[in-house]
Amino acid sequence: MNRDTYEIGLPIIQKAGVEHKINFIQSSALSALDELLEDDANRESFDFAFVDADKVNYQKYHERLLQLVKVGGIIAYDNTLWFGTVAMPEEFVKESQKRNRLHIIELNKFLANDDRVQISQVPLGDGITICRRL
């Protein structure tokens, strides 16, 4: 949503020579994904998607991204360990973390049972779940 954040990373993107492969869209994620899906040429055309957004909509992003990412492509979800709280008894979780914790637990269960993807959860930082579309 913030162009300034993109601008911070732009010199690195340019140095890597991949600026032509990135289309920054300043919009809510659901709206942007819906707009991409309106053009059939976008379906199954993406190699990679990284999701670090509002946790309540992660499953909605997943459904849309499965239509956009090609077979063998990767969808990565950030924050899937949510400060370790997904493995804690609820009484030990800070009140400020409880709402998103429940959304992440639901997402993790959903992805574990989704036969459209193969997953790997990586305990780097706050957790990343990598999904390879089958």
TrEMBL record:
Database matches in InterPro entries: Cation-dep_OMT, SAM-dependent_MTases_sf, SAM_O-MeTrfase
Matching PROSITE patterns: SAM_OMT_I
Metabolic or biological pathway: Aromatic compound metabolism; phenylpropanoid biosynthesis
Annotated EC: 2.1.1.104
Class in the EC hierarchy, top level: transferase
Superkingdom of source: Eukaryota
GO terms for MF: caffeoyl-CoA O-methyltransferase activity
Gene Ontology annotations of biological process type: lignin biosynthetic process; methylation
Keyword Secreted attributed: no
Pfam families, sorted: Methyltransf_3
Keywords: Lignin biosynthesis, Methyltransferase, S-adenosyl-L-methionine, Transferase
SUPFAM superfamilies in the cross-refs: S-adenosyl-L-methionine-dependent methyltransferases
Signal sequence extent: none
Record keyword Methyltransferase present: yes
Family: Belongs to the class I-like SAM-binding methyltransferase superfamily. Cation-dependent O-methyltransferase family.
Protein name, UniProt field: caffeoyl-CoA O-methyltransferase
